[in-house]
Automatic annotation (TrEMBL):
Coiled coil: none
Pfam entry (one): AIRS_C
Domain PurM-like N-terminal intervals: 38-150
InterPro entries: HypE, PurM-like_C_dom, PurM-like_C_sf, PurM-like_N, PurM-like_N_sf
Family note: Belongs to the HypE family.
The protein's name in its UniProt record: Hydrogenase expression/formation protein HypE
Gene of this entry: hypE
């Protein structure tokens, strides 16, 4: 394989993505340390702490059960800010349109973006639009950037996990990835599976009431729960142990993954967060989640069990233990 070529796997959020970031992009552009590689940057200006993030969306198809590329772009930006404990304020929207795209479809996507932004309390304040020739894109790509404010005393970071901390997720995993896959491939499913696409800032506002006990927040999008926890384990220098029997999964998602040979731990989510919480406040944080509409199926799925160079392991349903690594290659391309 020619190592000079960019592959689909470099956009998976998994091992190849991290290699590209660590070997080329980050050293060239910023040199930010591993400890600082979070969902958004936190910067200070005139005594105020601001979170800043940017993202691009190339999901295929652009409409899927439970959302579309527009709702995905707005909610994804809101969530990246919220994972730093920030209150989202403003965002930009850049549209790259392919010649021949339907104005009716674009109007529907723009309307859903405005609705999602209003619902999350973030204002779309600037943007840009470009059109490329037919065949040079895939109908519509969207780039967004977002700014939010981080209140004094809020310190959320992927490097803060400590031995004994509990790992909590706010609901079932893999819903988004399987919904997009079903729409893309025209799968006839016996159950309705919809994307979990949602803005999580309201749920995060409740979790922030736990104060210093809330160590880490991260939304497990590309690469899924497994890759996201591996990132956190590396940042914090710890071992994370998951319990297979505690993982919340919808039967439909479990069935599709079983038939297609997919591991739900690596399937993308767009309305889920992982919270790493001090052990003495884990039950209280779980209760807060369960009382919120986006946390009714929340569960404690594991804990930080030791210091290491960044290990993740899964205690299986039969009592064995297996290592969990970052996603290798591209399990489901064009998922966000």
């Amino acid at each position: 394989m020619d190592k000079d070529l960019i592959l689909l796997g470099h956009g998976s959020g998994g091992k190849l993505s991290h290699q590209l970031l660590d070997e080329l992009i980050i050293p060239t552009l910023s040199g930010v340390s591993v400890a600082g590689q979070n969902d958004a940057a936190v910067v200070e200006h005139n005594g105020q702490r601001l979170a800043f993030t940017t993202d691009s969306y190339v999901v295929d198809p652009i409409f899927f059960p439970g959302g579309n590329i527009g709702t995905l772009a707005v909610n994804g930006t809101v969530n990246d800010l919220a994972m730093m404990g920030a209150r989202p304020l403003f965002m930009s929207v850049g549209l790259i349109l392919e010649e021949g795209m339907s104005r009716r479809e674009l109007a529907a996507i723009l309307a859903s973006m405005r609705e999602a932004a209003d619902g999350a309390g973030i204002a779309i304040v600037t943007g840009d639009t470009k059109v490329v020739p037919r065949g040079k894109a895939d109908r519509l790509f969207i780039n967004t950037s977002g700014v939010g404010v981080v209140e004094n005393g809020v310190e959320i970071n992927g490097c803060k996990a400590r031995v004994g901390d509990r790992v909590i997720i706010n609901g079932t995993i893999g819903d988004h990835g399987i919904a997009v896959l079903a729409a893309r491939e025209g799968l006839e499913l016996s159950t309705d599976i919809e994307s979990d696409c949602a803005a999580l800032n309201g749920l995060v506002a409740e979790l922030l009431k736990e104060g210093d006990a809330l160590r880490v927040l991260r939304d497990p999008t590309r690469g899924g729960v497994a890759t996201t926890l591996k990132e956190i384990a590396i940042q914090s220098g710890v071992t994370v142990t998951l319990r297979e029997e505690s993982l919340p999964l919808k039967n439909g998602v479990k069935g599709v993954c079983s038939i297609l040979g997919l591991d739900p731990l690596y399937v993308a989510n767009e309305g889920k967060l992982l919270a790493i919480v001090a052990p003495e406040r884990a039950d209280a944080a779980l209760d807060r989640m369960c009382q919120h509409p986006l946390g009714r199926d929340a569960a404690i799925i594991g804990e930080v069990t030791g210091a290491s160079d960044g290990r993740v392991q899964l205690e299986t349903a039969v009592g064995g233990m297996r290592g969990v690594e970052m996603l290798a290659g591209e399990q489901l391309p064009r998922i966000c």
